[in-house]
Amino acid sequence: MKKLYTIGALATVLFSACRPSANVTTPPTSGEAVFTNYLAVGCSFTSGYADDALTVSGQLNSYPQRLFEQMETIKSGNGATGPFIQPLVTGDNGYPTPKLVAGTKYYCDGTSSIGPVVSTLPLDSNGSWHYTSPVNNGQINNIAVPFIRVADYAVAGYANNNNMLAKRFYYDANKRPLDELYSRVFNLHPTFFTVWLGATDVLGYALAGGQGNGTGTATPVLGNYYNQNDITPFQVFADYYDSVVTAVSSTSASGALLNVPDITALPYFTAVPSNGLVITRQSQADSLQALYKSRGFDIVFQEGKNQYVIKDNDDKTRQSVPGELILMTIPRDSIICAGWGSVKPIPKEYVLTTDELQNIRTMVDKYNENIRQQCIRRKLAYVDINAFMKTLATGMPYNGIKYSAEYISGGAFSLDGVHMNARGNALIANYVLNTINTYYHSTVPLTDANKYPGVKYP
Amino acid sequence: MKKHVITASLLLSAMTTFGGGYQLNLQGLRQMAMGGSGTAWPWDASTIFYNPGGLTRLKGIQIYAGTAMIMPTTAYGNRDNSGVVSSNEQTAKQTFMPFNLYIGGPVHEDSRIGVGLGIYSPFGTGMKWNDNWMGKYIVQSVELKTVFFQPTVSYRATEWLSVGAGFVVGTGSLDMQRALPVHGAQGPGLDDGKASLHGNAAGVGFNVGAQIKMSENLQLGLTYRSQVNMDIDGGAAKFRVPTSLKDSFPGTTFSARLPMPAVATAGFGWRRGDFTLQMDFSYTAWSAYDSLRIDFKQTTTSLTNMRAPRLYRNTFTPRLGMHYKISRVVALMAGGAYDPTPVVNDIVSPDLPDADRIVLSCGITVKPLPGLTIMGAFEGVNSVKRNGEYVYAGFNGVYKTAAATPAIGLYYSF
Q: Tens digit of pLDDT per residue, chain B (414 long)?
């Protein structure tokens, strides 16, 4: 009988052990940071701009929105408290330009592919006047203005004269963006901030195919305003970056500064390979070679893949070299049916040559060294987004999806090839949180980036 | 009682050299009740599986039938760099019912030759996660079933040595479902793409064994069950994707090979009066499973052949069992095993997030009528909590698996 009892007791123990739980929850904590009032400062990358437009769903999927949601999970004190206010537009069609949607693109040779198609839905006009916060004191938590450069913080009347979209964000369009930033800081009293600025200071030059001053010696064209296509001179960047960080830390807040990614690795610049000239027969290569010979150029073509022929910055016709980049906006029909890159050189505004790439990369490195020094001096977390983007470019497996910087199929970038989609923004948020957690010894949980939409296939 | 359980498991883990995997150890009721041990002693017709050499030592022909109800649950907690475990998940409640049928024994009383047929499920796994869980792009559900047919002969060479061999014909099936990382206008969780694979598998192998009577009280058993490569050919691969991607994911067929690893076992049995103690040591050659390969008949730039590394390592499993005959009618059994996992650290995939397992079991047999024996057994399996990383897919988490398996069976001796 005793044996039976023993068996019975054993069975009871076994049954009770058969309900597993992997619940070893460590509660989220804030560490040395105080996330209570979170303020995000930045440009397009921070505003939720995606698919070449500012839309309400893009804004609601911005990485600051994700950061706030994760910081809000801290219930043991110093967690973020809501509401998190972004100057939302009201529609999803885009303002001031229509958004891009995934659709079927047809080409002159009868082929088609899935690609970006401009939405034909009516624009959201409400972006043209300033946003009224639903909170009584006018609180705004994400003051990232699409396209704003560090250089623009000094420009009085910026929202009136230089950036249509800025009107949505600024109460007094005649003021300098730096003044508007101070108003936000006094209004919110941030205890924690993130700043991601600087990418647009080199992006305009790159998007223009290097057609601007890239040597860092540009001068203002009007007042303090620099041409959109110029690279912001280093000292201008350093001065106003310092002013911005001084403004956001004026309430003794702690925070994180995100550095500038190497923008030349964005899909916008890598989607069209520079060696895309495919010659199927040697005779074609020979006749193309003869054609250029007759024009006075010695260019060797061969069967297989060839570098495209381009116009370089000095208007010289030459073959591109590996590593040079063709912009995504180059009309595909011109390549397929009009002989661009083969019998006709690709116009220079669609090409980033070795020199132009060097201008961009050199300046990005200088900006980043400056941002790193700011972090050391002010004791702020330095978020190496540049390193994150490099990892992404080589392929990044995440919860079963292999994200990369491939256009469309990479999964993280929106259809404009420059700005992240909702999933990419969530991945950025996680990367920022990892740095914050390390620096401030906090344990803010990460978000499941795969929950958010990627490319919406038709 | 609980204290003793913990002590026992600590002792067992101290012995570990390095299986769980998808091996099942439920081919006989008595053996199951004794921690899966049973190589040294021919308990009944289920020895066709446990040691074909023992078949000739049965008293007569037996018909044996049994079934188990495996009720496994795996829990998952997402664990990120912050150290916070969030988004706890549990696999859906499922019951798997592998069955065993054996018929066999010595061809006539005191014959040196025994023959028999065994039908059993030596491998299998199944888990179903929530369709929208964090790992949905790796696996939503997976089920592997096997049924092996084993005609067997056994020969008693001397008073102290008997040997046996069986030819194994394996049949089975594999079902897998996962979400594809493409979605339409509605977004993830609402119109995710989906891949469904279903295929029937077949393979052949063998099972050989010997039983040696060392003395009146001590027996030794040795067995080797060969690897069986379960080949799937012409399995159905179906995809549900947004319209614009239909050409990239054509419905097609697939082939795959799933190796069912070889198992070598040495066992000892010691009997004194009504009490039997037995111990098995099994070596499972899991390293045969180096990767999961699925080849599609029609591939596209989006649909490429699957190569998921597994790199399983071989495992060494000790099993211990006790049998006590209370009376002519009733006997009790108990046992346990420490089953280390073949799954290596970087490749803990949610389709089989295996970990070292502690097996505890018990059982009872009752002989209500001459010739008829009714058996009941219960096995509880608990895996240790494991911090698993599946580097290949960038998926991390904490896993813990438990399974409760009651089983019933009966046999009749002629």
A: 222 222 222 222 222 222 346 788 899 999 999 999 999 999 999 999 999 999 999 999 999 999 999 988 888 888 776 666 666 788 888 899 999 999 999 998 889 999 999 999 999 888 899 999 988 998 899 899 999 999 999 999 999 999 999 999 999 999 999 999 889 989 998 999 999 999 999 999 999 999 999 999 999 999 999 999 999 999 999 999 998 888 888 999 999 998 899 999 999 999 999 999 999 999 999 988 887 788 999 988 888 888 777 788 899 999 999 999 999 999 999 999 999 998 888 888 887 888 899 999 999 999 999 999 999 999 998 888 888 888 888 888 888 888 889 999 999 999
Cα–Cα distance measured from residue B28 to residue B8, given in angstroms and rounded to the nearest whole number: 24
- A6, B187: Cβ pair inside 8 Å? no
To the nearest whole Å, the CA of A104 is away from the closest chain B CA by 8
**Selected residues 107-126 of chain B with any CB under 8 Å from a CB in chain A:** none
Ramachandran angles phi, psi of B93, nearest 5°: -70, 125
Is residue B36 within 8 Å of residue B337, measured between CB atoms? yes
Q: Hunting for tokens 């024996």 — which residue is that?
A: B373
Cα distance between residue A49 and residue A63, in whole Å: 11
Every domain of chain A and the residues it spans:
38-103+119-268+354-451, 277-352
Is there a contact between A452 and A399 (Cβ–Cβ < 8 Å)? Answer: no
Question: Domains in chain B, ordered, with CATH?
Answer: 2-413 (2.40.160.60)
Q: Say if the ipTM goes beyond 0.90.
A: no
Identify the sign of the CA torsion A219, A224, A227, A232: positive
Verify whether the Cβ–Cβ distance A10 to B334 is below 8 Å. Answer: yes
Q: Chain B contact for A228, CB < 8 A?
A: no
Tell me which chain B residues have a C-beta less than 8 angstroms from the C-beta of A398. 394
Chain B residue with the nearest C-alpha to that of A30 = B82
Considering the four listed CATH numbers 3.40.50.1110, 3.40.50.150, 4.10.480.10, 3.40.50.2000, the one that applies to the domain covering A38-103+119-268+354-451 is 3.40.50.1110
List, as one string, the DSSP characters of B190-207: TSEEEEEEEEEEEEEEEE
**CA dist., res. A228 & res. A238, Å (int):** 18
Distance of CA B252 to the CA centre of its chain: 30
Strand runs labelled E in B35-112: 62-68, 71-79, 85-90, 99-106
CA angle A30, A32, A36 (to 5 degrees): 50
**Which of B323, B332, B314, B338 shows the shortest CA–CA distance to B376?**
B332
**Residue carrying the six token digits 């885009």:** A94
Q: Provide DSSP, B275-335.
A: EEEEEEEEEE-GGG--EEEEEESS--SSS--EEEE-----EEEEEEEEEEE-SSSEEEEEE
Subunit contact A23:B77, Cβ cutoff 8 A: yes
In angstroms, how far is the first alpha carbon of chain A from the final one? 71
In order, the DSSP letters of A27-56 are PP--TT---SSEEEEESHHHHT-BTTB--H
List the beta strands (DSSP E) in A239-335. Answer: 254-258, 277-279, 304-306, 309-311, 317-319, 325-326
Query: In whole angstroms, how far apart are CA B52 and each of B152, B153, B208, B272, B371?
Result: 7, 7, 6, 24, 22
Q: Extract the tokens encoding B326.
A: 């209370």
* Å between B180 CA and nearest CA of chain A: 9
Q: B114-153 b/e with 16+ CB inside 10 Å = b?
A: bbbebbbbbbbbbbbbeeebbbbbbbbbbbbbbbbbbebb
User: A20 and B78: CB-CB below 8 Å?
Assistant: no
CA distance A17 to B336: 14
Distance separating alpha carbons of residues B42 and B31, to the nearest angstrom: 10
- pTM score, two decimals? 0.89
Q: How far is CA B314 from the centre of its chain?
A: 15
